[in-house]
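Repro:
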Amino acid sequence: MRYLGLDLGSRTLGVALSDPSGVLASKLTVIRHEEEYDRLVLEVCELVKQYDIGTIVLGYPLNMNGTVGPKGELSKEFQKKLEEKVSIPVVLQDERLTTKTATDVLISGNVRREKRHQVVDSVAATIILQTYLDRREK
């Protein structure tokens, strides 16, 4: 079964995909949305069909102290919108520090600033998805 990892930002959605065995995550794309969440849900639904996804893993941005802030509430709302349109589980995965980790990985790989800005969300989605897959295996 394949998994789809999502990192919802205010203007972009980073997307990652697992291999068919559900063990390894890799970056797929970044979708620009400008807060057009209904259109974004439809695009995710197309990816679910295209890649025969069994579970969606959505990043859940908690505050460092574990409380839910406005971005966490937005993720919960997006989760509900997705669940209304797909017949597969949409699970929330704690994503604290994933964007920073993704940026650090890209910097250590000598990726130029312009390119980092273009791919950081899909790398963050990959980290979110891989964290979920690793936790699921245990």
